[in-house]
Structure formats: structure tokens, C-alpha cells
Design a protein that fits this description.
The chain is an alpha/beta fold. The chain has 2 domains: about 10-35; about 50-240, Vaccinia Virus protein VP39 (Rossmann fold, 3-Layer(aba) Sandwich). Helix content is about 35%, strand content about 20%. It has a 7-stranded mixed sheet with strand order 5-4-3-6-7-9-8, sandwiched between helices. Strands 1-2 form a two-stranded antiparallel sheet. Helix 4 (about 70-75) runs parallel beside helix 5 (about 95-100). The longest helix is centred in the N-terminal third of the chain and has 15 residues, at about 20-35.
Length: about 240
């Protein structure tokens, strides 16, 4: 589809057509890149998330299907007129999806300006009203501003780098992938930051790496809940700030 710049239906309708020489050249080049470990999403520049196509570059983490559980969990808790902040937005997939699905006021931050450029482009193309800010965690925002803070923080341990697939290890941005030596470094900073940003009774919703360790960090929070994915793996944590 990408090599001939046509949709799947066109391929079915022209299944017996001979490929043009230019199409073969493009397909051969893409296949060569894939064989060397370059992710398909980086070759095509796109990835579907929650039924929408997102533009992807080397500057952002490729959206994973598992992250849709963060969106679903947030939507299950969102109230009308809620203010939502997505920390470490990357491609903008979480923030944009929440804005389009909930119609709430959605904000997003990232420490990477290159990632923010990708996210802002996706928001424009998908006509999502998301306000973006550059900065570490939520430092661009005032205390007690939000009803919900969501995040898919970097949670891969640096000590596990060698065991990762080459598609992940060599092509996902390290800034969005690794959470320090044990994978928990960003959680240690993000949880106190969310305490500052949330209104009393506000919710923190995060994708998980190590569920037990993160649950322990949330010892002072109320209504801590772990949400499993379809494989039964702990994928999302929800916690309520004390009043």
C-alpha cells in the first residue's frame, strides 16, 4: 500500500495488475529497511491508535495498542468540563484521543520540542483542540489546575536494554523509552508532580511497567486501582489525590 500509494481496497481491485518498475523500486527499498530492523511505522510514517491514523517520526515513541487502556480508563472516569493533562505526550495519541472522545479541555506537555512538533501536527490534522507546552513533566502549569493527569512515562529499565528487540532498542527515542537503571525513575518524579498539579480528589492515571513498585509509591493516595490488559497483565494504575 505504501509503495504504490494506494489503499487496501485498490490492491484487491487490481490484484492481477503488474507492478510498475517505480513501485518495485520503492517496495524493494522499504523491504531492505525492514530487514535491517527499521520499524514498519517509521517506513510508512503512520500508526493507528484508537481508530485514527497518527503521524510518526523517529522523535516519538510508536503508539502501542496497550496504551489504549490508558485512554479507556480515563474516559471511564472523566466528568463533563474536566481539565486533563497528558504528561510526556510524544505523538500526542493519548491527549488527542481524549480531546476528540471527551470534548474536555485537554493539555499536553513534553520535554522534547521535536516530539511536540509531531503532536501538534497530529492535532491539527485530526482537528483536536489540545494545548501543548514544552517542559519537564508539568512544570509549565500551575498548582491545582487539573482534574485528571494521564501519562505513559518511560518505564523500560536501562539494565534491560540489551534484551530489547532491535526495532525498539535502536529506533524508539531513548528519552521516551528508558526510565533509569530500574525503570522507575520517572515515576518517582511524576507522582509528586501530579500531587501538585491535581485538584483535591483529582485522578492520576499512568501506564505501568512494575505494578507493585508503583503501587507502593502511591501509598499516600486514595482508591488505588490496577487495570489489567486483555492478556491479564497489569497495564494501568489509577489513584485519587487526597482532599
Amino acid at each position: 500500500m505504501h509503495a504504490v500509494q494506494q489503499e487496501r481496497s485498490w490492491l484487491y481491485a487490481h490484484a492481477l495488475d503488474e507492478l510498475k518498475e517505480l513501485w518495485w523500486i520503492h517496495y524493494g527499498r522499504y523491504l531492505h529497511e525492514r530487514l535491517k530492523g527499521r520499524p514498519t511505522q517509521h517506513i510508512t510514517g503512520r500508526q493507528e491508535f484508537y481508530g485514527r491514523d497518527f503521524h510518526i517520526t523517529k522523535d516519538v515513541l510508536i503508539p502501542r495498542p496497550e496504551t489504549e487502556h490508558v485512554v479507556e480508563t480515563a474516559l471511564a472516569h472523566v466528568q463533563p468540563d474536566a481539565r486533563i493533562l497528558d504528561i510526556g505526550t510524544g505523538s500526542g495519541c493519548i491527549a488527542i484521543t481524549l480531546a476528540l472522545e471527551s470534548k474536555c479541555a485537554v493539555f499536553a506537555s513534553d520535554i522534547s520540542r521535536a516530539a511536540l512538533a509531531v503532536a501538534a501536527g497530529n492535532a491539527r490534522r485530526l482537528q483536536a483542540n489540545v494545548r501543548f507546552a514544552a517542559g519537564d513533566l508539568g512544570l509549565a502549569f500551575a498548582d491545582g489546575t487539573f482534574d485528571i493527569v494521564v501519562s505513559n512515562p518511560p518505564y523500560v529499565a536501562l539494565r534491560d536494554r540489551a534484551s530489547l528487540q532491535v526495532e525498539v532498542r535502536e529506533h524508539d527515542p531513548a528519552l521516551a523509552l528508558f526510565g533509569g537503571e530500574d525503570g522507575l525513575e520517572v515515576y518517582r518524579r511524576l507522582i509528586p508532580e501530579a500531587t501538585r498539579l491535581l485538584k483535591p480528589g483529582g485522578l492520576l492515571i499512568m501506564e505501568l511497567g512494575e505494578a507493585d513498585a508503583v503501587r507502593t509509591m502511591l501509598g499516600g493516595w486514595n482508591d488505588v486501582e490496577i487495570v489489567n490488559d486483555l492478556a491479564g497483565i497489569a497495564r494501568v494504575v489509577v489513584a485519587r489525590k487526597t482532599s
